[in-house]
Please model this.
Amino acid sequence: MTTNTILLIILSLIVAAVLSYFQYYYKAKSKLTFNLLLAFLRFLGIFGLLLLLINPLITSKTTVTEKPILAVVVDNSSSVINLKADKTATELHSKLVSNNDLKEKYTIQSYQFDSDFLPFQQLDFKGKQTNLDAVAKDLKATNRNYSFPTVLISDGNQTSGNDYVYSFDISNKVFPVILGDTTKVLDLKINHLNVNKYAFLKNQFPVEVFLQYSGTKSITADFQISQGNSVLNKQRVSFSPTKNTAVINVLLTAHKTGTQLYKASLISNEKEINSYNNHKNFAVEVIDQKTNIAIISSINHPDIATLKRAIESNAQRKVTIFNPKQINQLTDYNVLILYQPTSEFKSIFDSNKHAGINTFIVTGTHTDFGFLNQQQSNLEFKMTAQKEDYLAGFNSQFNLFALDNIGFEIFPPLQNPYGKIKTNGNTSVLLSSKIRNMESGAPLLAFSENQGSRSVFLLGENSWKWRMESHIKEESFAKYDVFMDKIIQFLASNNAKKSLIVNHESFYNSGDAIEITAQYFNKNYEFDDKAHLSISLINSKTKKTKTYDLLKGNNAYKVNLDGLPAGTYNFTVKELNSKSSYSGRFEILDFDIEKQFVNPDLDKLKQLATLTQGKVYFPNQTDDLVQSLLADQSYKTIEKSNISRSPLIDWKWLLVLICSFFAAEWFIRKYNGLL
Model:
């Protein structure tokens, strides 16, 4: 308390004493025997009230003993069972957390982990993934302000997450206890396989496979990729104790559309303890991207041949050139390229109003802009008879699809009549036009979407010079042709709006998170958060049906289907009020990543222990680990003094006492007829 506060308290004592004396002795008419009691009660009541008005801070000091933390973390993934170390892990954990000497020195925190890091509950060793990176990060977050040792009971084989060696805090010692037999046995393994999820029909797609060998002698093995009973690729691979890895690159051809299942195998005559990791199934979704494009023009121009060559650089595109009067059946084509349309194109525009085919319109000095204004409303043209050269400016904020700037700013100018061009509706500009490096405010290449139909406008002729300029710069037509292919892909995509949209993969690996999301839209194409969506799931082999509700999340409905066995599943998502539905299928591939290991990852765990200044132990060295933890002087019990200050007005009992003093005084006076 400050000096001023002490002086005020002394003054309060004097004031309370004076008032009590004045009331019961100086002013009292009779000197009763109980006046002393009444004066004392009055003194306590007044002094209590004055104390509340002064409201001094009351300081208290307490001493707290804080033990260091010891984190005991156990691997609960299924690889522990596969290495026949589940019983050992359970016994080790029990022995450590029940040790009285450790409990006396440390506050023991017990955890378990597989794909998630959790407080210890019960070990069942059914985890489908191992994420040691999550262990490191969550331990840091849980004990952010403390230095503590960690006992890590694990085989060290991680299947998800970042490299855990560098995730642990190097200021906190880690003592790995190795689960599993570290004796090296002969093992051939497909360690990793990279393949794109999608491929186009008739195209080749790459498969990259990483093979690994563990053993003490030189051997040879056959690597093959098969589909059903057909072997698509086979080659001989040699290994030795020094050459224990190999990378195989294979090109496969997509012959059929749909989900195509393949099997990679590594076969040898050697006897292995674990042959499960010699095989790996994978799948590729083959898409038929075949697109028929009609170029319609009433004039001859180099642009037309250039467009045909650029588009057909993709083998899935076929281009046919027509005069406006030659083409009859528009529905045979996926995209229409209308080159410099005039009134001769009227029948084409009229027919397309019913066909609804997406269009790519190229304008130039021969275009009838009055006619074009009548046939579409995405762009409004007010053009003059004067010709102008327009340079391109690239819009880096364009987001309809991903596209690199291939040097549009340095391409030769396109020629178009001079005038004003206004964009209407949902129109995005990829290239703006410049006149001698001055922005004109008009688009040069624009993309429009209107009621489910798409249109692209290239406002200028002589784009053949762009392709030539790109070849001069890159010594290849590839970049320009990819640019043109992106435009065709945008137009070839079906953008018809559906009320129920469902997103899912065509295949999953066992153990992967299987999540299907859906969106339901009302008639105004607004997300309906009051929809009731359900999914019916049928296993094509067992014919068993399961039904789940989709739960509403952030602008989507979701269902989690983790834990389904391998197999093919057909499903239907329904909106129960409108009866809208979507049907699809997916396949779960038989692949258990936790069965890929025959030994613990001793090298990785040793690296972790060295980096954190800990030490690796084996199960038969548990007593040594306990003694090391007990003898470690880096972690000591700390005594902390906590000083707390609280204002007197927070003492509720003081107010009760003051009321009691005044009440007692009143009752005594009342009883003796002094009121």
About this structure: The mean pLDDT is 87. Residues 3-26 form the longest helix (24 residues).
